[in-house]
Amino acid sequence: MTPFGLCDRCRHQRLVTSGRGSTFSMCERGLQDPDWPKYPPMPVLRCPRFAPRQEPD
Ligand code: SF4
């Protein structure tokens, strides 16, 4: 399992590093939808908004 679960394979994930060097997984869907959390509890195991990243050919 990756540190942030399903989010680590999702194109809506944005990794944010704090000034103290901790890394958080932010969900960009939460920037557009006020009913969706920007910082869901980790690791995310299931998500109806999961969208796989495009893998390079
Ligand atoms: S849409 Fe779901 S799986 Fe994707 S980053 Fe947001 S919370 Fe994680």
Short synopsis of the structure:
It contains one helix and two strands.
Structural key phrases:
57 residues; mainly beta; two-stranded antiparallel ribbon; 7% helix; binds iron/sulfur cluster
Tell me what you see in this structure.
- With 57 residues, the chain is mainly beta.
- It has one domain (1-46).
- It has one helix at residues 29-32; strands at residues 13-17, 23-27.
- A two-stranded antiparallel sheet has the order 1-2.
- The protein binds iron/sulfur cluster (SF4).
- Iron/sulfur cluster binds next to loops.
| Separation of the first and last Cα atoms | 24 Å
Q: What ligands can be seen in this structure?
A: iron/sulfur cluster
Number of strands: 2
Secondary structure class reads mainly beta
What number is the mean pLDDT? 93
**Count of DSSP helices?**
1
Please state the overall shape, judged from the principal axes of the Cα atoms: globular
Q: Mind summarizing the main beta sheet?
A: 2 strands, antiparallel
Portion in strands: 15-25%
Number of domains: 1
Order of helices and strands: EEH
Reconstruct the topology from this structure:
Elements (H helix, E strand, L loop, with lengths): L12 E5 L5 E5 L1 H4 L25
Antiparallel strand pairs: 1-2
